[in-house]
Amino acid sequence: MTRPYSSELKKSVLQKVIIKGRPVSDVSIEYGIGQSTIYRWLKADSELKKNSKEKFIMNKLEQRLQEVSDERDILIKAASIFAKKITY
What we know:
Blueprint: H1 7-18, H2 24-31, H3 35-87
């Protein structure tokens, strides 16, 4: 059964491994946490960052698509106005 760990402890462990580059085995011994638990936290952290980045990119792309669609609509209206003027 897994023990509940505080978010502060998880953050501290991940910082030591990711930012400071300490080996998981050393951090595992220092905090008395299993290596598999730390690896699971690392995987979850990387997936969270990946999902956040993907959501950011999707939002930017959706915004740009809306801008381009609006510009296209304006150009279509302008073309129809000019076409009417030419035929008269």
